[in-house]
Amino acid sequence: MQGNVKIRIEEDASVQEMEITIRCRQTNESVIRMLEMFRMADRKLTGYRDGQTYLLDVSRILYIDTVEKKTFLYTEEEVYETPLRLYELEGRLESCDFFRASRSSIINFNRIQSLKPEFGGTMQVTMTNGERLNVSRQYAKQIKEKLGCL
Question: Residue 48 forms beta bridges with which residues?
C-alpha cells in the first residue's frame, strides 16, 4: 500500500449492521486488495470480466490458476480475473476446502467429481464441469490425507 493507512473503529450500540468506509484519493490495486480482504469474510471474491466487476460466491469457484503473472477464477460458466496473488488466495481459502494443486493452481475440493492416480505420484482430478486438472506429486498428498487414504 502506498502512503500511510489510518484505521479508525467506532463502537456504537445502536448500529444494526457493520459498515466499512474506505476513503482514498483514487481506487487502485491496493484499495481493491483491501476490499478483497473484507469480502473474504463474507465468502465472496471480486472478479473482473469484460470491464465489469462481479461478486462471486467462493462456492461457485472450481479452481484458481495463474497464467503470465495474472490470476484467474474459474467457475462452471465463466473465467474472471482477480488482482489477488495465488499465495494470498491460498491462505484465505484454506478454510473453505481449497487446496494447492501445483505451483500455479488452487482447487476447490468440494467441486471435484472424480480422482485418478497417475504414474509418478501425480493425480488427475475431474471437476464438476468435466474439466480435467493435474495435481502435482508434491500436492497429491493433501488430497489423500483429506480422503483418509494416508
Answer: 53, 81
- Alpha-carbon distance of 70 to 134, in angstroms, equals 19
Q: For 117-131, how does the pLDDT look when each residue is reduced to its tens digit (9 = 90+)?
A: 888 888 999 999 999
pTM tops 0.85: no
3-state DSSP of 71-82:
EEEECCCCEEEE
Torsion angle (degrees, nearest 10) of CA 96, 53, 72, 29 = -100
- Amino acid type, 130: G
Residue 117 CB partners (closer than 8 Å, separation 6+): 123, 140
The DSSP bridge pattern shows strands 112-117 and 105-108 to be unpaired
CA distance 77 to 56: 12
Three-class SS state of 115? strand
Concatenated DSSP letters of 49-110 = ETTEEEEEEGGG--EEEEETTEEEEE-SS-EEEESS-HHHHHHHHGGGTEEEEETTEEEEGG
Residue 129 to residue 112: CA distance in whole angstroms: 9
